[in-house]
Amino acid sequence: MNQHIGNLIIRIVLGVTFFMHGLTKFQSGIDNIAGWFTSIGLPGGLAYGVATFELVGGLLLILGLGVRYIGLLFALVMVGAIVKVKWSVGLLGDGKNPGFELELALLAMGAYLFVAKANGFVDNFLKEKMLNKN
Question: How does it sit in the membrane (predicted)?
Fold first, then answer.
């Protein structure tokens, strides 16, 4: 029971965090984010995919659908963010720019959901439907 509560807390916090990050990217002007992606050597179009995934993936985590795999994909996004954007300033930053401690924590949360085989409400509901169908 305690593990389920822990999974729920991590799932909701991670889902809300990514949902808000995706929403902010669209509200602040996704074209600006695409320009920034280009300036750091990433394809500008990737910004649209990342923002959409953060928004939709965050919502799916909140609802509890595809929890393990969304967690894994978020962990991979954070690996990319750490390596491409934050690695040069270090874990705690360089005094001007923040480090990658937040990205590392989000990576760990996403990886945990995958490794722990965490499920959400909708995942469990669909699993029960499939088991009862047979």
Answer: Multi-pass membrane protein
